[in-house]
Structures are given as structure tokens and as C-alpha cells.
Amino acid sequence: MKLLLLVIGKTTDSHVKALIDDYSSRLSHYVPFAIEVIPELRSTKALTAEQQKATEAELIRKQLQSGDHIVLLDEHGSERRSVEFASWLQKRMNAGTRRMVFIVGGPYGFDPSIHSLANEEISLSQMTFSHQLIRLLFVEQLYRAQTILRGEPYHHE
To answer: Which of 20, 83, 85, 135 has the smallest number of CB atoms closer than 10 Å to its CB?
Structure first.
């Protein structure tokens, strides 16, 4: 199974980017993994939040393929402990999913059309984090899940 993290806008903080790159490299030892960046919209002051979400939705749909298992990282999604997330990920791998796409939306969240495409929605916390940090936290959790599934000592419980 291939894992793809689809994000809107590049990571601008060099320290956060270095950490994302580190965990991405570690994760790639276990599964094929990539991060795809959809460029941020320009001139958004002229757009309403709904117009911005609709435009982002068009760009997101262009990155999706038939058969993708789509998971939105959304504050209204279900929360899981790391061990539960690892188990959930293993079930998807065992089900023969070829490509799992995790999507971080723009500043206003997702357009309803993207919600309707999603197979699932996951929340990393009830707290709000910047889009920069969510990328880092999520890539670390993907790495953690792989180490849990292999019984490696990274995760302690």
C-alpha cells in the first residue's frame, strides 16, 4: 500500500520541514510514502471562505485517483489512540488498499464535495494546531504506527 499526504501550501518553517523530512525518511523504510503539495491560492482576499474551499476542492480532486481510500484530517473526525490508529492502518493494508490518501485541508477546512468523497475522517486532537504542525504530527504518527505494528521499541505504553 502506498501512503500519500496531500496538503495545501508548502511548509514554510525550516525547523518543522526538517522534522517532517526526517519522519518521512524513516517512514519510507516501511511503506512507500510521499507528500504532495497543492500550491496555496493567491488573491484569497477577494474570495469568500466557501469560494476558497470550492477552489481548493477542484485542486484536491485533480490529485485523486480511482480506487483511492481517502481520509480527511478534520477536527470533526474520529479520534484514536496511537495503538488503535496502527491497528486501523493494518486493517486497511490487509484489505488490499492500493493507495491511501490523507488530506489536510486549507484554512477553512473542506468543501462539502470533498467530505462526500472521503471514506473516513480522522481528528488528531480536539485542540487546534497550525497546518504546519499537523503535517509534522501526522507524519510522526504514521511512523509510530509502523513501529507499533512491527513491535519495535519506539512506542512505549
So the answer is: 83
Measured distance CA(8)–CA(59) in Å, rounded: 9
CB-neighbour burial class of residue 128 (10 A; exposed 0-12, middle 13-18, buried 19+): exposed
Residue ranges making up the domain that contains 128: 2-40+47-149
- Whole-structure pTM value: 0.95
Biggest alpha carbon distance in the chain? Answer: 51
CATH number, domain containing residue 106? 3.40.1280.10
133 part of a folded domain: yes
**In contact, 7 and 35? CB cutoff 8 Å:** yes
Does residue 52 contact residue 108 with C-beta atoms inside 8 Å? yes
Write the pLDDT tens digit of every residue in 16-75: 999 999 999 999 999 999 999 999 888 888 889 999 999 999 999 999 999 999 999 999
